[in-house]
Amino acid sequence: MLITKIEFIKKELYRVDIDYEFAFALYERELKQFHLKENLELSEELVEEIEKEIVLPRAKRKAMLLLKYSDRTKEELRKRLLEASFHSNIVEKAIEYVEAYGYINDQRYMENYILFKKTSKSKKQIEMELIKKGMERQQVTQYLEENQWDEIEVLREAVRKRLMGKRLQEEKDLQKQYGYFMRKGYSYYQVKKVIEEYLEELETEQNL
């Protein structure tokens, strides 16, 4: 196993390539500790020692730190660890570690996210956001189907807030508002129904 490249990343952290592929990232003091340099032959035992004693514990600590202040999906954590210059194999081991201790749980994350967001967002918008965070579409869709709530009332409140004080005198103004709420994940018929209700209520109040 040959060190084919050692490249500076940031703040005394260096990327180490073995046999032309990324192996791990080490700090300058660790390079010196193991006397690592380009074109040096390494034993498989030494590579395993570095991964086990240095890199993996660091990845676990990084994962714990990332989860300390913000709950994340497995995919979000994976992305952050890869961005922190850990090899994909090390990343998966670190994820297995925090998952085994219950520090990360996609089902729990999804349930909490929906509980928090359902009072202000449409089901479709919540579904898209969770999928973007790495959740499986089937898992999210099934949970939303099994746990219904009145999103029309959420839409009514959103319409009241957005249209308060606005005059929709022209068709283009009305269509603009339709487009806004449809982009938030509501259907045309939902938006049409709620906006018409709002305008009728507004007209009634003005005629009193």
TrEMBL record:
Pfam families: RecX_HTH1, RecX_HTH3. Keywords: Cytoplasm. InterPro entries: RecX_HTH_1st, RecX_HTH_3rd, Regulatory_RecX, WH-like_DNA-bd_sf. PANTHER family: REGULATORY PROTEIN RECX FAMILY PROTEIN (PTHR33602:SF1). HAMAP family: RecX. Belongs to the RecX family. This is Regulatory protein RecX. It comes from Candidatus Scybalomonas excrementavium. The lineage of its organism: Bacteria, Bacillati, Bacillota, Clostridia, Lachnospirales.
